[in-house]
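1st attempt posting a full record on here, be nice pls
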Amino acid sequence: MDQPRVMLTVEQAADAIGIGRTTMFALLKNGDVESVRIGRLRRVPAAAIDSFLERLAADQNPATRQGV
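the predicted structure (as tokens):
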């Protein structure tokens, strides 16, 4: 039985949300998406993708903003 991946490569993370590799690296550099280094490898926790998408949706949905 295949288990879902807990850690994704930058390319896998970008593909998961439908953006390019360069854009994903920019999100990582800006701290918008969390990542970790394992030796020389950069990995993105799958949960970090979920968190980023939730924040993105909340920022763009006026009904979820505080004070509205």
